[in-house]
Sequence to fold (341 residues):
Amino acid sequence: MARVLVVGAGLTGAAAAALLRGAPRGQVAVWDKARGAGGRMSTSRADRGSADLGAQFVTCEPELAGPRLSFYEDLVSQGILKPLTAPVEGMVVREGSRNYVAPQGISSVVKYYLEQSGADVSYEQQILQLQGDIVNTLPLPVGDSHDAVFAASGTETPAVINESQKQQLESVSYSSRYALGLFYEAGTGIAVPWAAQYITDNPCIRFISIDNKKRNIESPEIGPSVVVHTTVTFGSEHLDSDPAEVQQIILSHLQRIVPSLPEPSSIKCQRWRYSQVTRAVPNCPGQMILHTQPLLICGGDGFTRSNFDGCIESAMSLAQAVKPHLQQFQSQAAKLPLDLL
Ligand SMILES: Cc1cc2nc3c(=O)[nH]c(=O)nc-3n(C[C@H](O)[C@H](O)[C@H](O)COP(=O)(O)OP(=O)(O)OC[C@H]3O[C@@H](n4cnc5c(N)ncnc54)[C@H](O)[C@@H]3O)c2cc1C
Fold:
């Protein structure tokens, strides 16, 4: 039986797995090295609050979304995305575009696709290389920010990537940032007139959000939370610094920008070494086939762009590329009932 291993339970991997739904139980698996789903669409939880430490908004540009428009519509109809209504200062809104937030946290988008997929999802499973009965040894050319879809075909041919593929993959570049999540006791008041704001005149901080307010989930039972994103320059300059020191620097800038902010009950500091793609893999249709037998495909926002739309484009392209191989295996192995795309 052909099996598919989706490496990475971020948005691209989860959406790709959802597009492969219909496969018999056990045929598609998703593995992630982290303890939970989301990747850079992660929602950090503390006591009574939660905070989106990575992606903040899902922006739909209907004219550009094309075949991906139905993905936005589906998430909105399921109540997973809601229109952004809270005031965000300094946000550039293109004409015709719509901004959404995820009331349950941005990771709920990824979790929705994982549920839809029906795949077996395992966490704390880091892929260092692919090996075993089916494939001997396979160096996996995925970094922290790439998803890979691997379909094992039963061959024992070791797969390696060639020099030109390696160069293409190495040409991808990412910005780096830090994020702070500040969590407060339920009932704490944060007296600012905005839900979020983009900062343009601070060397350290680029974005601040009162995260529950941004997501429109203000209630006396929910502990408010604040999310801070640093500038890319600050992120790069402090990439290998001690996180505790970085946290103190960010907090001192935050204090100057929002002096009225109360003392949080807990703080989480997240380093995004691979934050957003600044140069994607050139000339790629959202994925790259690294090896055909066995099939090894790389995808993710590194092959498109760092937003919801880019990930869905990559996921669709990954699923399209896997489909003929599964059909080929189907005809070889007693036609498996797959309902792809
Ligand atoms: C600070 C920040 C702000 C952002 N703001 C927005 C925004 O407002 N709107 C928007 O649309 N986008 C935003 N983005 C971009 C968006 O978050 C990403 O484009 C998207 O989440 C990428 O999804 P992905 O699945 O391709 O990669 P990832 O989310 O990085 O997922 C990859 C997954 O693979 C796992 N993994 C990696 N290597 C291995 C391995 N060897 N074995 C097992 N598992 C592995 C990782 O743990 C991770 O879960 C933002 C990103 C950041 C960091």
Notes: The longest strand covers residues 177-183. The longest helix spans residues 308-332. Residues 177-275 form a domain with the Polyamine Oxidase; Chain A, domain 2 fold (CATH 3.90.660.10).
